Amino acid sequence: MDAMQYEITLPADYDMGIIRERVATRGHLLDDFPGLGLKAYLIRERGDGSPVNQYAPFYLWTAPEGMHSFLWGPGFQGIVNDFGRPVVQHWTGLAYEEGPAASMAPRTATRRRSPVPLDLAPAQAVAEARARHARESRADGVVASALAIDPRHWELVHFTLWAREPAASERGSGSGASERFQVLHVSEPERADLAAQPTGTSVR
Question: Per the domain annotation, does 7 fall within a domain?
Fold first, then answer.
């Protein structure tokens, strides 16, 4: 499993209805995309708990070939044509869990990014993160949750889809707080394959 996200930050007075219309008319195009576990079409709106307007889709890939086909193909080129080429963040998957609300449509997503401390062995950091992820994935309202790591910057990312608005206590506080996004659409052609993959491995 590979996790991927790019963030397109838009002007403060940008009409986010344009992004909503974009997703409504184009989101279905990836509903059958090979190698895609799921894509959550996410936005943040300034004033709604966010300092910025942002379009920030999050992807979970079951196979790297699917990710490559998207990035080098017409799908991502459409983003480049309309908004310029964004930085694509990439993490190696460590765990994926279906939550108690797996059968429900997600309304909200949270993303928590946390650095791996320099004085903590990578194996210990990953083991502790996996244990925490397994506990948090059982929370009421969780549709699905993924844990991944970027070993270049030694950063963990916890991504969760919710069928309800998560409580403040579930989002954390301070440097450990999650960022909240609205979910406009989810393409999930190979979501079942995410759950079927052994923990911490990728389909090759």
Answer: yes
Domain assignment present for residue 142? The answer is yes
What is the maximum alpha-carbon separation in the chain?
Answer: 48
| pTM metric for this prediction | 0.91
Query: Which stretches does DSSP call E strand in the chain?
Result: 2-6, 8-10, 36-44, 53-55, 58-61, 88-98, 108-115, 142-150, 155-162, 179-187
Give the domain CATH number at 36.
Answer: 3.30.70.100
Residue 143 lies in a domain: yes
Residue 133 CA neighbour count, 13 Å, CB half: 29
Cβ contacts of residue 97 below 8 Å, gap of 6+? 133, 134, 137, 138, 142, 144, 145, 146, 195
Any domain includes 88? yes
pLDDT in tens, 91-107: 999 999 999 999 999 99
Q: How far apart are CA 141 and CA 66, in angstroms?
A: 29
Number of domains forming the structure of the chain: 1
pLDDT in tens, 104-161: 999 999 999 999 999 999 999 999 999 999 999 999 999 999 999 999 999 999 999 9
- Rounded to whole angstroms, the Cα distance separating 137 from 151 reads 23
Task: Note the Cα 161 to chain centre separation in Å.
Answer: 8
Which H/E stretch holds residue 191? helix 191-196
